[in-house]
Design goal:
Layout lengths: L4 H24 L15 H27 L1 H8 L10 H36 L3 H25 L7 H5 L4 H32 L4 H9 L13 H18 L2 H6 L1 H7 L3 H11 L14 E9 L5 E6 L11 E5 L9 H14 L7 E8 L4 H4 L6 E7 L3 H12 L7 E7 L9 H4 L14 H9 L2 H4 L4 E8 L1 H17 L4 E8 L3
Parallel strand pairs: 5-6, 5-7, 7-8
Antiparallel strand pairs: 1-2, 1-4, 3-4
Length: 500
């Protein structure tokens, strides 16, 4: 994919934030007057070592990701699924396990840092040795929380130029965000729990515990470790609130609740900083420009086709997406519903051409099997619901490509009616609509693809799957079973699941 000079400049600035942040924190640790926290961590060795852990891990991951964009064999290996019935790739698993190893190593180093400096005095004091262990765990886990917080925040942006440049799939970014955020949640409670257990070992009673965690003397000065416990208490409960409203059960049933309560993460970050100043990185960037809507079509299936006058999407590849910011509408209904209502009103008033939107992108990763279209004889797209969006561009690319003998099969399932009338599809494929349960991909492959081995000597088949959990896992199992029964075929499957 080619980039404009402006995008390359934007990418360079985004990339520069990492060494700039490293350098800033490296020298910031010795500038106590710059610290706004109640508890300013002033140990250069401790914080600088954690900096090396954090940024060194990110640099190594970036190098591997970049190498995968240049070496097909490495990309194929990292994209391979870990298990037959799993949508998790080897790359995602390796990155997560190495991240876990890095966090464990950092935790061990931090623990020994505190242990070596305190063990002699602790033995002389005659206090229970368990108290020393718990206190060291409390301090070490707090520092590691800052590392995991940085990892949880990094992949949260849909419009990350660096992720697009490194061809990291958006589903991988979301998975990392979910996994690291849940890890941060449990690590934060471990931090709290180890501190609480430490006080119990020292024999603190209920009144002393209440005073320690919740009582504040506002006559005492800020910056002398008088308020940091209360600040941490507020931070961990803000994080817990976000974690509870981010559960799959809540997110799928009450998306607006999930979306708006997610902003409480800023309260968590703010109070976590006031608790102790060892946060490493927060970098956000955005760019806007206005584009005009030229037409809108309300499809029979319930989908909306919006045409926008813009040249920004010319470089978009199948599987990539554009971020579209539309006018904000006040309504008690869900965002999608109020947007449709707004577009209907503007269209009825003859003012659809006055609607302005902000397009950003393209972002995300191109569909691999389409990227190397010359190596596949047959393309099979198995998608559910809105997963059709990525396939339309992919099918158009294949059908309009240099090969005229290539075959394309699209299996699209949706709860909506009128699928065959979708305007963008009608011009590309012949549609046959059947009502009933979700079709079995293995049966479809047996019926449509298997006969081609004999009649047309078809050997290479690319399969793209995009849909909910049941569809994705079923497709993985179907392709594996079909491959075992038809060894003459070479199947390559690529999965983007709604389920993370």
């Amino acid at each position: 994919m080619k980039y404009t000079h402006l995008e390359l400049l934007f990418g360079a600035i985004s990339l520069a934030f990492f060494p700039a942040s490293f350098t800033f924190v490296w020298f910031l640790i010795e500038k106590r007057t710059w610290c706004l926290s109640d508890f300013c961590v002033t140990s250069p060795l401790l914080i600088r070592t954690n900096l090396w852990f954090f940024y060194g891990f990110l640099a190594a991951a970036a190098v591997v990701s970049f190498a995968a964009t240049r070496f097909t064999s490495l990309n194929r290996f990292l994209s391979r699924k870990t298990f037959q019935k799993s949508t998790i790739s080897i790359g995602e698993l390796c990155f997560s396990l190495l991240m876990l190893l890095m966090v464990v190593t950092a935790s061990a180093w931090n623990y020994m840092y505190f242990h070596d400096r305190r063990v002699a005095n602790w033995v002389k004091s005659g206090k229970p040795f368990a108290g020393l262990v718990l206190d060291n765990l409390y301090n070490a886990s707090g520092d590691v929380c800052a590392i995991v917080m940085g990892l949880a925040m990094l992949p949260v942006s849909k419009n990350s130029f660096l992720a697009t440049f490194l061809e990291v799939p958006y589903t991988s970014l979301v998975r990392f965000h979910i996994w690291f955020s849940r890890g941060l949640f449990w690590l934060s409670w471990f931090h709290f729990g180890s501190g609480f257990a430490y006080l119990l070992v020292l024999g603190r009673n209920s009144q002393q515990l209440f005073d320690y965690y919740l009582a504040v003397d506002n006559r005492k000065p800020w910056g002398k470790k008088e308020y940091y416990i209360v600040m941490g208490f507020v931070a961990i409960f803000a994080l817990t609130f976000v974690a509870m409203t981010s559960l799959d059960y809540v997110r799928r049933r009450w998306y607006n609740t999930f979306f708006y309560t997610h902003f409480f993460v800023f309260a968590f970050m703010l109070f976590a900083y006031f608790h102790a100043s060892s946060l490493y990185l927060l970098c956000a960037s955005c760019r806007f420009s206005k584009d005009k809507v030229t037409s809108v079509k309300f499809e029979e299936s319930g989908y909306v086709t919006l045409t926008i006058a813009s040249t920004k999407a010319k470089r978009a590849q199948p599987g990539q997406f554009m971020r579209c910011l539309l006018p904000s509408q006040k309504s008690e209904t869900e965002w999608s519903s109020r947007l449709v209502e707004y577009l209907r009103k503007m269209d009825a008033d003859g003012m659809i051409g006055e609607v302005e939107v902000c397009l950003q992108g393209p972002y995300g990763k191109e569909i691999d099997i389409v990227k190397k279209e010359s190596t596949c004889d047959v393309f099979v797209f198995c998608v559910g619901g809105t997963g059709i969006a990525a396939c339309i561009a992919a099918i158009k690319r294949v059908l309009l490509g240099p090969r005229r003998d290539v075959k394309v099969f699209l299996f699209w399932t949706s709860r909506s009616s009128g699928l065959g009338s979708l305007s963008l599809l009608k011009s590309l494929v012949d549609c046959k609509v059947e009502k009933g349960k979700r079709p079995d991909l293995k049966e479809l492959l047996e019926h449509h693809v298997a006969p081609l081995d004999v009649s047309e000597n078809i050997k290479s088949v690319g399969v793209f799957v995009c849909g909910p959990k049941g569809l994705a896992l079923g497709a993985l199992e179907s392709v594996s079973t079909f491959q075992k029964g038809h060894s003459g075929f070479k199947l390559e499957i690529e999965v983007e699941s709604f389920y993370l």
